[in-house]
Structure formats: structure tokens, C-alpha cells
Write a structure and sequence with these properties.
202 residues, two-stranded antiparallel ribbon, 2% strand, flat
Length: 202
């Protein structure tokens, strides 16, 4: 489901770019992307449909993983905070069956601090541009891509559980926005260090 939705988002952006540039000869790129997607993943959806009567094989996944689809999640603070920590830590690096931590464990605190600085810097940048913000299609596409990934992450949380790997397709967009936030906070030589921190983090 996540791959299909993200592919539709990518096609929508590609079609919008071709249409706004008024270059109809480039529509073949959209057709080529659709053909390649069907060639790579189409057989998988067809196989799931013939085997499970479900092109996404969600019910089969739940059975193998031992997930009860009718069970409700305990929406209390302990559970939600634990899921939030699992999301962050599995995004940074959590190995085995989500049981082997990176060493030293303080690395998770460092990554949390970098993420918080990126958010604070991004909000500060927006505040400094208040009243004169122009529509940036690049930022709109990046933000839309991140939003679609978050929605798909929430969908998988409802189906099974939350894991950082479901956000991996959004990491390039998150990295660019993080650098924009860091650059607003740091000046001089610190700006260069902020720019190289994201590749080092990844």
C-alpha cells in the first residue's frame, strides 16, 4: 500500500511538471514510469490477488506476524511514548528483531538533539519570513512527500506496529529540510558544519 500510494504521488508530481512546462513530448516519461512500475511490482499485486484475494496481502501479513486485526491498541501515555521512542530509535538504527541498540546508547540522544535543532531552526526561519513567504513548489513537493509517508506510517501502525523503516523514503526530503533549519540557527563556520551534519547522521 505504501509503495503504491507513494508511486501515485510521484506520478502526480511528474505529470504536473510536464503539464506546467507545456512540453507534451515529455509525456512519454510518465508512460515509461508507469510501465516500469507495472513491470517491477505488478506481478506481486497479481500474485497476492490470486493467492489471498487481497492485492496488498495485508491479512496474510497479519496472520504471519501474529497480529489480531480486531484488537484495539491501548491508547495510554505509556504505550504512545513507547511507540514514539520505537519510531525514533528504529529510524536512527535498531537491529535484529528491534532489540539490538547502537552503542553507545547516547547516540540516540545526539540524533534527538539534532532533530530538535532542525525543527526549532525551521520554525524560526518561517517566523522570520512571516508576511513575505512565497510559494515554493520545491518545498511544497518535499512537504507533501513527507506528509504522504507519515500517513502511510500511521496506516501501518493501525495494521501492525510502527517502525522507522516505513519513513525511509522520506529521509532525503527530511534531510534537506533539516539542513534549512540548521542553517538558520548557525552562522559563519558553524553553517558549514550544520550542512555536513546530516550526511554524517544518515
Amino acid at each position: 500500500l505504501a509503495g503504491a500510494v507513494l508511486a501515485l504521488f510521484a506520478y502526480a508530481v511528474l505529470m504536473w511538471r510536464v503539464a506546467t512546462r507545456r512540453r507534451p513530448e515529455q509525456w512519454w516519461l510518465v508512460l515509461l514510469a508507469a510501465v516500469l512500475t507495472a513491470a517491477v511490482a505488478g506481478w506481486w499485486y497479481y500474485r497476492n490477488w490470486t493467492l489471498y484475494s487481497d492485492p496488498l496481502a495485508i491479512r496474510a501479513f497479519q496472520q504471519v506476524a501474529g497480529v489480531d486485526p480486531s484488537a484495539s491498541k491501548p491508547l495510554n501515555w505509556d504505550y504512545l511514548l513507547g511507540q514514539w521512542r520505537l519510531l525514533r530509535w528504529s529510524s536512527y538504527g535498531l537491529f535484529g528483531q528491534l532489540s539490538i541498540l547502537m552503542q553507545p546508547v547516547t547516540l540516540y540522544l545526539i540524533f534527538d538533539a539534532l532533530a530538535c535543532l532542525a525543527v526549532v531552526g525551521g520554525l524560526a526561519r518561517l517566523w522570520s519570513l512571516r508576511g513575505r513567504i512565497r510559494v515554493s513548489y520545491t518545498l511544497a513537493i518535499l512537504s507533501g512527500w513527507i506528509l504522504v509517508n507519515i500517513v502511510m506510517l500511521f496506516r501501518w501502525w493501525l495494521v501492525a506496529s510502527v517502525q522507522g523503516r516505513f519513513l525511509f523514503p522520506a529521509w532525503p526530503a527530511l534531510a534537506l529540510l533539516a539542513v534549512l533549519g540548521w542553517e538558520h540557527l548557525f552562522t559563519g563556520p558553524f553553517r558549514l558544519r550544520a550542512g555536513i551534519a546530516q550526511p554524517a547522521m544518515i
